[in-house]
Design goal:
It is elongated, with a radius of gyration of 28 Å. α7 runs antiparallel to α8 and α13 (247-267) crosses α15. It is of the alpha+beta class. Its main location: periplasm. Residues 90-288 form the Alginate lyase domain. Residues 682-720 form the Exo-oligoalginate lyase C-terminal domain.
């Protein structure tokens, strides 16, 4: 066989049988590879050099395979992570360049693992019964296998029979058997840990020609199909491609889903895995991208807020999805990422991106159902405006999200001007920072981050939803009542009657475009129905610095009291309080040169509490973030109506301020005949009503008369212009 240049090898090798792949790798001379590198598209060429730099640096240090002892973030943990990256990327470099030094490095490392692995028992830093061998939790062992087996695939047929047998038996068979037999409780879960485990075992089975191993991975340990990789694809995603644990874990789980599916497609194309369940994996990839703003994922549930589209899982996922679909919108995501992978898919993507074939990704308003049948609530994404600083409202009416879920039914977030304005806390965790309890979830993840008061959700009697019982919460979810993405008035409405015994909570979020206002408003209608008397707290967690509020408050300047004793309240410092007999008020803050006014009204007296997170936190684990709580004691119905308005600007360099005060001068809310009527008065004198019938019939005609003024509309909701003077 004649020599192949680098570009041809990169395109062809990954699709060839293993023996032919090895022959091609051996015949691609390193000098030829360097000469051909100039013909590579920039994204792929940069990735090649990045991998070279990393693996070459690892080689310069020599092979280091330490005895496992540390939890996440510790030396041995991080070294084994670096090793699996080196195995993965080193194999790719050998396949592409044919340089023997990469094969030899991988061979030596794998032989050292072959000496170590048979000696390993439970990890000494194990946190629970799901202990790994190389790592403190079995999940990381599965991640090691997923990456390492891909690198081994690229060199295996070039090794001697003796080396190959030893590595096969003492590394990969042992690792696969550990995951699928010794840790069957993890392997057979419907959970992202099991996705990683089944992917690693299945890819190992394909490489070793072990059909039984592949079948276990696809169909579960007993091969019944009740668990396993395919069953996870059926149960973990909704029909819209939403992953039940939320965007952060959707991103994480996508790598094993996509790389194993790619392996299935190459080895058993007759399974048509990318057509499985109406193309659910490709749908999930696109949905993952939709669940982001400015590239960062919406931080639902146990989310680390730093994660964005620029992450290894999505580099793989976008390349594989592009290889399957050729969707030019995915090229714009790859362009944003500035990264790809050293595979045939990555090369094809890079070439088409360099050829100018990218088209904008269609970020849009959408309703994403939750649950395998799409019946367990939903997540509503309402987008308004163009460009990277557009406005996005998220209504989280979804299910609990298993063990990583938070008690935040009918919660919401808002992004505007490139920032998160109404915040979700995410997880209380410093991932892989050993100083913070080994990088594990912190105690405050339970006492604060998961609690209802830590979110923008209604709290009853200072207790969390479902009384903080995650197992019970997994059996309940809100009902999505209505959704509309009409540009002038976007709406999401949901209800839940199981968060608290005897209390039904309905929340309707609207994003209307009001003439005379520079940005879309957010209207928030919260209604709780109960036959008993309850204390209702409606928190709003916001980003920014307070400018002013329009009520008289008692401010705590010497001593900072704590709001409560449990359910997250023990972590809230009280900075100011005000009793509002009329049940109305407004708060304005500034963030990044833009002003935001939160204006609210209740169906009776309210207490406004201005506070900050971080109390009772002796290890300084929590972020200090501001919040306002609207508190109401009600016997029967409790209702809250509020608006959030973005307005004006501040340019510190130019010392210029525009419209620092709200352009809305008054908000009034009335519930009448099952309808909600929110009346706004602008400073210009113009008046509008946001009328909500709660009837989804688009042809339904409705009208109410308030103080002699008739308000008529059709459909679920509408913006109605009123006369310029109050009636």
């Amino acid at each position: 066989m004649r020599s192949f240049v680098l570009l041809t090898a990169a395109l062809a090798v990954s699709a060839m049988p293993q023996a032919v792949c090895a022959a091609v790798s051996q015949e691609v001379a390193s000098t030829e590879g360097r000469e051909a590198a100039s013909s590579l598209p920039p994204l792929y060429a940069a990735e090649l050099e990045r991998s070279r730099a990393f693996v070459d640096a690892m080689m310069a240090e020599g092979v280091v395979v330490p005895q496992p002892k540390d939890p996440g973030g510790g030396y041995t943990h991080e070294q084994h992570k670096r090793n699996f990256r080196a195995l993965h990327q080193g194999g790719q470099l050998y396949r592409i360049t044919g340089e023997a030094k990469y094969r030899d490095f991988l061979r030596e490392m794998l032989l050292q693992y072959a000496a170590l692995y048979p000696t390993l028992g439970e990890h000494p830093a194990k946190a629970n019964q799901y202990s790994g061998r190389l790592f403190w939790q079995v999940l990381n062992d599965a991640m090691w296998l997923v990456h390492a087996v891909q690198g081994y695939r690229d060199i295996r047929d070039t090794l001697s029979a003796a080396d190959r047998k030893r590595i096969d038996d003492d590394v990969f068979r042992r690792a696969a058997n550990f995951l699928s037999q010794d840790q069957v409780i993890t392997f057979d879960r419907i959970h992202n840990h099991a996705t990683w485990a089944t992917a690693g075992v299945g890819m190992t089975g394909y490489l070793l020609g072990d059909a039984d191993m592949v079948e276990r991975a696809l169909m579960g340990s007993d091969k019944s199909g009740k668990t396993g990789f395919l069953r996870q694809a059926d149960l973990l995603f909704s029909p819209d491609g939403y992953y039940t644990e939320g965007p952060y874990y959707q991103r994480f789980a996508l790598l094993p889903f996509m790389v194993f599916a790619d392996a299935i497609e190459r080895n058993q194309p007759e399974r048509k895995v990318f057509e499985h369940r109406d193309g659910i994996l490709l749908k999930a990839l696109r949905t993952t991208v939709q669940l982001s703003y400015q590239g960062y994922f919406f931080p639902f549930n146990d989310a680390i807020r730093d994660k964005s589209l620029r992450t290894a899982e999505l580099y793989e996922g976008v390349a594989i999805a592009y290889g399957q679909t050729g969707d030019p919108a995915l090229l714009s995501i790859a362009d944003f990422q500035g990264r790809t992978v050293l595979t045939e898919n990555g090369l094809a993507l890079s070439r088409d991106l360099a050829a100018g074939k990218a088209q904008p990704f269609d970020f849009r308003s959408m309703l994403l159902s939750d649950g395998p049948e799409g019946t367990r609530g939903a997540v509503a994404i309402l987008r308004q405006g163009e460009g990277p600083s557009h406005t996005v409202l998220i209504a989280k009416n979804s299910s609990q999200g298993m063990g990583h879920g938070h008690f935040d039914k009918l919660a919401w977030q808002l992004y505007d001007n490139g920032n998160e304005i109404v915040r979700d806390y995410g997880a209380a965790r410093f991932l892989n920072i050993e100083a913070k309890r080994g990088g594990r979830y912190l105690p405050e993840n339970t006492t604060w981050a998961k609690s209802t008061v830590a979110h923008n959700a209604l709290v009853v009697d200072e207790t969390s939803h479902f009384d903080g019982d995650a197992q019970f919460a997994d059996t309940k979810w809100p009902e999505q009542l209505y959704f509309s993405d009409a540009p002038s008035l976007q709406v999401s409405s949901g209800v839940i009657d199981s968060a608290y015994p005897g209390v039904s909570i309905k929340r309707t979020m609207l994003m209307p475009m009001i003439p005379g206002l520079e940005a879309p408003l957010v209207i928030d209608l919260v209604n709780a129905q109960s036959e008993a008397s309850h204390l209702y707290d409606l928190p709003l967690h916001y980003s920014g610095h307070i400018m002013e509020y329009d009520f008289d408050a008692s401010v705590n300047v010497d001593v900072r009291p704590v709001l409560g004793n449990d359910n997250g309240y023990q972590h809230i410092w009280v900075d100011a309080e005000a009793d509002l007999e009329a049940g109305k008020g407004a708060l304005t803050w500034i963030l990044d040169g833009r002003f935001y006014t939160y204006r609210f009204a209740g169906n009776g007296p309210l207490r406004a509490i201005l506070g900050e997170s971080g109390a009772n936190d002796p290890e300084f684990n929590l972020r200090r973030e501001p919040l306002i709580i609207l508190r109401a004691q009600r016997n029967g119905e409790a209702s809250f109506a509020s608006l959030l308005e973005a307005h004006g600007s501040y340019d510190g360099a130019a010392e210029q301020t525009l419209d620092s005060r709200s352009l809305v001068s008054d908000l009034d809310h009335v519930s009448i005949g099952g309808f909600d009527i929110v009346r706004l008065t602008l400073k210009s004198g113009q008046r509008y009503a946001i009328a909500v019938s709660h009837n989804p019939d688009p042809e339904g005609a409705h009208s109410v008369t308030l103080n002699g003024e008739t308000i008529a509309w059709t459909g679920f909701a509408s913006v109605v212009a009123l006369s310029g003077e109050d009636s």
